Each structure stands twice: as structure tokens, then as C-alpha cells.
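Collaborator request log, item 7. Partner lab (contact: R.S.) asked for a structural prediction of Ribokinase-like domain-containing protein to inform their binding assays.
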Amino acid sequence: MSKILTVGEILVELVATTRGDGFREPQPLVGPFPSGAPAIFVDQVGKLGYEAAIIGRVGDDDFGHLNIARLTRDGVDISGIDVAPDEVTGCAFVRYREDGSRAFLFTMAQSATATLNLTPAATALMASCDHLHIMGTALSAPGMANVALEALRRIKARGGTLSFDPNIRPEILGAPGLRVRLLEVLDQTDIFMPSGDELFLFSERADEAGAIDDLLARGIREIVLKRGAEGASHFSVEGRHDIAALSVREVDPTGAGDSFGGTFVALRLAGVPPVAALRQANAAGALAVTRQGPMEGTSTQAALNAFLKDTFPEDAEIST
Ligand code: ATP
Ligand code: MG
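Returned to partner:
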């Protein structure tokens, strides 16, 4: 069975409990919640019962240990997490605006994650994993990007595969060198998982079908477009398949894309056909938004089966 590796930021998230634009006044917060897009992704893979590991760097502080404890509990190999004694774990402060969009304040670039470097433990993981998942955020800082691109070279050289979620927040789009690295990764992508307008990041075409054709022509085998509360679509040379979102009460949408991605990638690598994997991922994304905190809503396979049984009773259950 494949072991899935990801590289990148492990953060805590603190969420404002009132709506508004940013943090220029005192306000109540909840958290800290374990977070970081690659961490949420890998937690979801581990929770489903598949082999998964993360390469990252945290401070030797409560925020770092909160993450290590959660990932360990959920079955993730944490041997590649470097604990930096004199640095701090990165934070993401999130506040929802009245229109549902999110204002982020990140300390990622000034935290332990920004000085990620190639350790012997990280090198060992690159030799034992056959699939790499890259998030665009991990390409935004030179240290993380170097390690992610090294993992890509090593895993691809051994015949491994790559999934790529651009996960580009407007806050990081201007990071120096980011676009070149995004294109280097895109060129080697097997499964591309953009969200909304990220579909158009790498195409001159302004229409969805045109952008999909461009991406498939680059040699990408599968594209999964995440559409938030509008569901998701899967595209390959064999055609397209759309799925409506499942009806849930949205409490906190942050992390839905990562739970969706972890589920889709883990199940595809386990041999589950695209449409069934899409259905499971759609369920994981829906369950993720019902919980406050980005990693709080990751799902076990039993929870996904139970949720889908009510919606599609005719479908076979998936077992890990
Ligand atoms: P993030 O980067 O915040 O983790 P994202 O923007 O990458 O998220 P979304 O498109 O928001 O990803 O969500 C991923 C998937 O989760 C959607 O394609 C859908 O299947 C599911 N989902 C998201 N929001 C909802 C919702 N309100 N109701 C039901 N399902 C949802
Ligand atoms: Mg979203």
C-alpha cells in the first residue's frame, strides 16, 4: 500500500467569535486549534487508516505539542516533525467577515515553519513514501519550498506520484518566487485539486472548460475542482462528473478543502474509482464544515460510511 507524504506548515488557529474585518480592535477568540493546510490533509489521511507522514517544523511550545499530540492520536507518522527549541510555532488568526469571506493574519513567515530544512528524518521519509501531496502555501517560504521540491524530486525519481492543491490565499500570492515554484510543481502533477478560481491560476483561458482542457493537455491525469457549498467536479480525459454538496449546517468552512483532499487522494491511491472517491471526499468536506476548528472536522471511514448510508443507501461501504 502507498504511504502518503506531505510537507509544510503546522500551525495553530485562533478564530474570532465575532464577524468583521480583521483584528484592529480587541475581541474574543476561540482556540488554539491544530491547523496548517498540510497538517489537516495528513490528519484526514491518518484518520481514515492509511499510512501518512508530514515533514514540518514547530517550536518547542504548547502550540507545537498540541499539533504533535493530535497527529499522533490520528495515526500520522510524526518522525519528520522537527521541534525547534528557540523558535515559536506559527499562528493563523481568522475572522469571518459579514459576507462569509475570511480575513487571515499569519505569523507563518516569522515562525519555526519558515526555517524548515532537510533533516535526516525528513530524508528517510522521502525514501519510504510513494506519494507526495503539495500545498501551495508550502511553496511560499524558501525553506519549506526547498524541502517540498526535494521530496518531489526524490519521490518522482522512484516512480511515485504527486497531488497538488494550490491553496493560494490572496495574503501569500505575492511571495517572492512563488509562481515559478507553483509551475514547477504543476508540471509534475498527477492529481490537481484547485478550489474555485484557483482553476484559472495556470491558464490563459477564462472559461472553465477551456482551463480544464489546458490542464489535461499538460498531462495532468485527474482534476478535482472544489466548489465549497456548491459541491465538486472531477475531470479526466474520460470526461467529467459533478457532485452536489451534501446538506449540512455550516459552522466553520476552514479546512473543508484539506479534509476533502486527504480523503480523495487516500482513496484513489487505495484503488477506489474516481466517482466513489469523489463522493467520499464530498462527504468529508461536508462533515468538516459542521465543526468549529479546521482540524476538528476530519472524519474516520466509519463516520463517512454512516453519513453516506443515509444519503445513498444503495452504495457499497468502503473499508480501509
Ligand atoms: P479550505 O482551503 O478552506 O480548506 P477549500 O476552499 O479548498 O477549503 P472548499 O471548496 O471550500 O475547499 O470545500 C471543499 C469541499 O468540501 C467542497 O468541494 C464540498 O465538497 C465540501 N463543502 C465545502 N463547504 C460545504 C458546505 N457548506 N456544505 C457541504 N459541503 C461543503
Ligand atoms: Mg473554501
